[in-house]
TrEMBL record:
GO MF, any single term: protein serine/threonine kinase activity
Spans traversing the lipid bilayer: none
Matches recorded under PANTHER family: SERINE/THREONINE-PROTEIN KINASE TNNI3K-RELATED
Name the record gives this protein: Protein kinase domain-containing protein
Source taxonomy: Eukaryota, Fungi, Dikarya, Basidiomycota, Agaricomycotina
Protein kinase domain boundaries: 27-292
Length: 346
């Protein structure tokens, strides 16, 4: 069967399973589409509550055989049933837009995590715990591999919570879709593990954990991995040469503490000894407690002692930290500054 008829078959299969939203979703034609490597994202509304939704139109056509169509629809049905505070809800599928398969999910007002952390007042640590817990849910409960974990596939809710999106899409595309002429090669090589380079991108739990480590680095530096290597071929060679080096620029060093660098290192071990994401998530929660103003490195506290003009917020519940800061900075320190002050997040 030619590819132009495959969406029609998928629409019927999706209708039979209750995930076809063609008659319930309307595209907002006033919204400028967002173009990505594998999809175009439109804004839409889901009736009857007029819920704002993202319509991710894949730049791929599904193979037309019946078993493959069933596989795609059943995967989307599985995603629709996922429920976790760090997973973007999927509502279903539409096939009426651009004659392609489009996945309908909840719209997140604050965009993706990479753009979000460009605001220097944003603390990446709560986001990273959210990401780890979301990935833990996918691995341990849903038995789903993400396959394309990076900060641009993490969306931010109104209340600043991080939610994983595009989970499972990369493996599904690889197994069930044909690339269209307009679809470029996916620009995700910078997050690949060394074993994926050798196995042509095979997705595993261990590869997801490696990508989580790269996402940690990405959110702390506010730059893509290997940002200083523009040529993709050289990036591949660098990945095969070993894990990334620890950043040396002062702005990153003051935030990326020894504890967080240890977490990165656990994610970048050899595949056979790489930590599970559940262990990583527990370590994040128990060591560098990812809450605003609740974990400061000694190096940063010392830095404060040389800048008495800074407005510093002390965590009143942490007596030891307050005493140490008072000793280093002196009695002129202010204690009435809100905890979202840009200088106390790191």
């Amino acid at each position: 069967m030619s590819v132009q008829y495959a969406p029609e078959k998928l629409a019927k299969a999706a209708l039979d399973l209750g995930v076809n939203l063609d008659t319930w979703v309307d595209r907002d034609i006033t919204f400028r589409p967002r173009h990505g490597g594998t999809a175009v994202v439109y804004l839409g509304t889901l009736r009857p509550q007029a819920t704002r939704v993202a319509i991710k139109c894949l730049r791929f056509y599904p193979h037309g055989d019946e078993s493959n169509i069933d596989h795609i629809v059943r995967e989307i049905d599985v995603w629709r049933k996922l429920q976790h505070k760090n997973i973007v809800p999927v509502f279903g599928v539409v096939t009426k837009i651009d004659f392609a398969v489009s996945i309908v999910s909840e719209w997140m007002e604050q965009g993706n995590a990479f753009d979000y952390v460009q605001n220097e007042t944003v603390d990446p640590r709560p986001l990273l715990l959210d990401i780890a817990r979301g990935l833990e849910y996918l691995h341990d409960y849903a038995k789903i591999l993400h396959g394309d974990l990076r900060s641009k596939n993490v969306l931010i809710s109104k209340d600043g919570r991080a939610l994983l999106t595009d989970y499972g899409i990369s493996p599904l595309i690889d197994s069930s879709f044909s690339m269209t002429a307009a679809a470029p090669i996916r620009p995700t090589v910078r997050w690949l593990s060394p074993e994926q380079i050798d196995s042509f991108g095979e997705v595993t739990r261990e590869a997801d954990v490696w990508a989580f480590g790269m996402t940690v680095l990405e959110l702390f530096t506010r730059k893509p991995p290997y940002h200083d290597i523009p040529d993709t071929r050289n990036v591949i060679a660098r990945i095969l040469d070993g894990p990334p080096a620890r950043p040396t620029d002062q702005s990153t060093c003051s935030r990326l503490t020894d504890e967080w660098w240890e977490i990165c290192s656990l994610c970048w071990r050899d595949e056979s000894s790489r930590s599970a994401i559940s262990d990583i998530a527990n370590k994040i929660q128990s060591d560098p407690v990812p809450r605003f103003g609740s974990f400061w490195s000694i190096s940063y506290i010392v830095e404060l002692s040389f800048d008495r003009s800074l407005d510093v917020a002390l965590a009143s519940q942490n007596g030891l930290l307050s005493s140490l800061c008072s000793f280093l900075v002196g009695p002129s320190i202010r204690t009435d500054v809100p905890c979202n002050h840009p200088r106390v997040l790191y």
